[in-house]
From TrEMBL:
One of its GO terms (molecular function) is efflux transmembrane transporter activity. This is NodT family efflux transporter outer membrane factor (OMF) lipoprotein. The keyword Transmembrane applies. It comes from Rhodopseudomonas pentothenatexigens. Its main location: membrane.
Length: 554
């Protein structure tokens, strides 16, 4: 079948892009125009067939809305209908905004705000947000034409013959073009413009991927804030827990010192043995030996908390020096349903946005398999004197499309598509893994919190019983009705039970924090992600200073 050039172009473009286009080719087959008032009839001009370049431009414009590659669809993942420990929480939706305030500790509230403002990981994530937004603007710029200006000035001196300069001007020709010293000049000015027609959506897919990149950077910032708030709260609770345990060890050591004094007096009276005195002294010293270990752990926790707020390690020592009770959360915690984590967990949303971004990049790679058209044009003016550029100058221009068709590349382009598809699969699996991890985190926190509350109640009962045992054994020992071994056993058991109870209270709060983190609770206030951390100076043209890329000798 014989096809015209324009019809062939339309058919090929449609076949390559998968986008239906319609170009009227035969004036006889076009719809009749709307009837207009009668006018004098003039002879019709013969129809002129459109040139191939014109049709190429028209087809490129019509194909500008086409894109290859898969369109992203949000995946639907199955989640359980309820948590396995449904009795450990209420089915109401989780109350995540500012969850740490329900610990009712103003110092903790203050530290969270200071950490958000000063933490270096938050500042790094904010810089990634600015990078993603700049990358998006860069990708959008590829959709627009590029225009550049070029100016040049040349001087030449010759003694004979001819010398053709660029643009066809003869610098060594007629003497009227030469200066008094035999020099001649050529001045040129012009503009170059180019525009890559996005026939198959390569640049649009790049913009799409960059837009998903902005979303991913935002979710990454939220994930960093979630981790930060949880770490600050956990470190603060641990610090208060160490303070309580240090105070308990000191009280117990003082009580055991009193027992040692009583034993020493009984030894002097002949009613106790030296073995009893040595045992009492050793037990008090052993209890006191625990204190330095707890103080070390407390100091390290304060140092970690200070660094989380972006300050030197000892910056919070004075603020936390005065002991305060271990915060107690209000329980139970509403956990909602498992499907909530798909919307509330920033790490899950981050993985989903990365999956979307990798999907867009498949289309970007596939577009390289198809032809590309670039429109280029330039206009230039030249003269022998600078003042001639606006008056007596020669003007030249050019305009036309460039068609590039990949014919043979050794499978490199197809391999790039397969690489993008494999990367998309990896991101999809990472998204699935993030969902499973989120569900696991919530289930673990629910189990840990529920069981720790049961354990804490048992430890409280144990502590009450051992406290009574110590009181009774000491009374009986003073009256001579009980052995010293009963007193030592009761005191040792009481100290262990009280210390375990304090640790259990800290663990309950830690599990409460972990549950809120697992549900997606983080910072929901404002974060300045647009202000750079480093403010550059002397960025414009200025005299260059000495090279300072090497460190000065110490």
């Amino acid at each position: 079948m014989l096809l015209t050039a324009s019809a062939s172009l339309a058919s090929i473009a449609t076949a390559l892009s998968g986008c239906a286009i319609e170009i009227p080719l035969d004036p006889a087959k076009t719809p009749p125009p709307v009837q207009a008032p009668a006018k004098p009839v003039t002879p019709a001009k013969p129809a002129v067939a459109p040139s191939f370049a014109t049709l190429m431009i028209l087809a490129a414009v019509l194909l500008g809305g086409c894109a290859v590659g898969p369109d992203y669809r949000t995946p639907l993942l199955a989640t359980p209908a309820q948590w396995s420990r449904a009795g450990a929480s209420t089915p109401a939706p989780p109350v995540l905004p500012r969850w740490w305030t329900r610990l009712r500790d103003p110092t903790l509230d203050r530290l969270v705000v200071e950490a958000v403002d000063g933490n270096l990981d938050v500042a790094t994530a904010s810089a990634r947000v600015r990078e993603a937004r700049a990358s998006y603007r860069q990708a959008v710029g590829a959709l627009l034409p590029a225009i550049t200006n070029s100016d040049s000035a040349r001087l030449a001196k010759g003694t004979g013959g001819t010398s053709a300069a660029p643009g066809g001007l003869n610098l060594g020709g007629p003497s009227s073009l030469l200066g008094s010293d035999g020099t001649s000049g050529l001045y040129q000015a012009g503009f170059d413009a180019s525009w890559e027609l996005d026939l198959f959506g390569a640049n649009r897919r790049a913009v799409e991927a960059a837009a998903y990149g902005i979303d991913a950077s935002d979710e990454n910032l939220r994930a960093v804030l979630l981790t930060l708030v949880g770490d600050v709260a956990s470190s603060y609770v641990e610090a208060r827990g160490y303070q309580a345990r240090i105070a308990l060890a000191r009280r117990t050591a003082l009580s055991q010192d009193e027992t040692t004094t009583i034993t020493r007096n009984r030894l002097a009276a002949g009613t106790a043995s030296a073995v009893d005195l040595a045992t009492a002294t050793g037990q008090a010293a052993a209890t006191r030996a625990v204190i330095p270990t707890l103080e070390t752990a407390y100091a390290q926790t304060v140092h970690r908390l200070s660094v989380l707020t972006g300050r030197p390690p000892a910056a919070l020592s004075a603020l936390l020096a005065r002991p305060k009770p271990i915060p107690a959360p209000k329980l139970p915690v509403p956990a909602g349903i498992p499907a909530d984590v798909l919307l509330t967990r920033p790490d899950v949303r981050l993985a989903e946005r990365r999956y979307a971004q990798s999907t867009a990049r498949i289309g970007q790679a596939e577009a390289a398999l198809y032809p590309s058209v670039n429109l280029a044009g330039n206009i230039a003016t030249s003269g022998t004197r600078l003042g001639d550029l606006g008056r007596n100058s020669s003007i030249s221009w050019s305009l036309g499309p460039t068609l590039t068709v990949p014919i043979f590349n050794g499978g490199k382009l197809r391999a790039a598509v397969e690489i993008a598809q494999a990367q998309r699969d990896q991101q999809f699996l990472a998204y699935q893994a993030s969902v499973l991890t989120a569900l696991k985190d919530v289930e673990d926190a629910l189990v840990a919190l529920s069981n720790e509350r049961v354990r804490s109640r048992s430890l409280a009962t144990s502590t009450t019983a051992y406290r009574q045992a110590v009181s009774l054994s000491q009374s009986l020992y003073r009256s001579g009705s009980s052995s010293f071994l009963d007193v030592l056993t009761a005191e040792r058991s009481l100290y262990g039970a009280e210390d375990a109870l304090l640790q259990s209270r800290v663990r309950i709060v830690s599990d409460y924090i972990a549950l809120n983190k697992a549900l997606g609770g983080g910072w929901d206030g404002e974060v300045d992600a647009l202000t750079p951390q480093v403010i550059d100076v002397d960025t414009g043209p200025h005299p260059a200073g000495p090279i300072t890329h090497r460190r000065a000798a110490l």
